[in-house]
Amino acid sequence: MNIPYHIHIIDDDTSVRSACGFLMDALGHPHHSWEHGAAFLQQAPLHQAAVALLDLRMPLLDGEQVLQALQAQHSCIATIVLTGHGDVATAVRLLKQGAVDFLLKPIQAEPLQQAIANAGQQALKLQQLHLWRQCEHSLSPKEQHLMALLVQGMTNKDMAAQLCVSQRTIEVHRAKLMHKLGCEHVAQLVHIYWQLHPQAQFN
Questions:
Q1: Which of 56, 62, 79, 83 has the fewest CB atoms in 10 Å of its CB?
Q2: In 3-state terms, what secondary structure has residue 181?
Q3: Cα–Cα distance between 198 and 192 in angstroms, integer?
Q4: Residue 78: which residues within 8 A CB-CB, separation 6 or more?
Q5: CA pair distance 184, 130, nearest whole angstrom
Q6: Largest CA distance in the chain
Q7: 7-133 has CATH 3.30.1390.10 classification
Q8: What pLDDT tens digit does each residue of the chain (203 aa) get?
Q9: What letter does residue 3 receive in the DSSP assignment?
Q10: Is Cell membrane among this UniProt entry's keywords (predicted)?
């Protein structure tokens, strides 16, 4: 059974939007069509989990520019790029930029269905990252510092010595930090940190 995901169809060709909309109806996915990438970026709820069927060649903003904008805004919309002029080099570049899949027009129902299933799961992961990011932004500077120290494997005693505070103070801040991030164990906090900061490095 297919999980229904909200689909954004972004294509300047009316016939393509209509055909994709027909396929979405057949597959049971609610959908919204956009004629231009700029309107989509300005009006769509970018931090709600969804899947975008994104045309590569469009006026104003092309598909690659829209994809880059979604990445820059940490959007929760997972992208499937559609094009009638695809090549391997373009596909590889867009996949590296965060696209989930790359399909050639005319779109066939079966590969599109699988691509949407994969993209939908990615969208849910992106939404979870967004929620974690919001939680992290709610942390005080002390809690953010403490989080970084915990990720490095420091004990309460080590952190108390480094920050020149009592172990009890560390315990209080640590409990608040864990509560805000919804973590029961330090391992969960470490997982969240590295999901949010995959390029982080410590001295």
A1: 62
A2: helix
A3: 10
A4: 50, 51, 52, 100, 119, 120, 122, 123, 126
A5: 20
A6: 68
A7: no
A8: 568 899 999 999 999 899 999 999 999 999 999 999 999 999 999 999 999 999 988 888 999 999 999 999 999 999 999 988 777 788 888 889 999 999 988 888 899 999 999 999 999 999 999 999 999 999 988 899 999 999 999 999 999 999 999 999 999 999 999 999 889 999 999 999 999 888 877 76
A9: P
A10: no
Q: How many residues are present in the chain? A: 203
Angle of CA points 102, 120, 180, to nearest 5°: 130
The boundaries of every CATH 1.10.10.10 domain in the chain are 138-196
- Token readout for 36 is 């231009």
Work out the number of other CB atoms within 10 angstroms of the CB of residue 112.
19
For the domain made up of 138-196, give the CATH fold: Arc Repressor Mutant, subunit A (1.10.10)
- If you search the block for the tokens 């915990």, which residue do you land on? 150
Residue 165, both tokens: 């505070």
CA–CA distance from 78 to each of 21, 54, 160, 175, 195 (Å)?
18, 10, 42, 34, 17
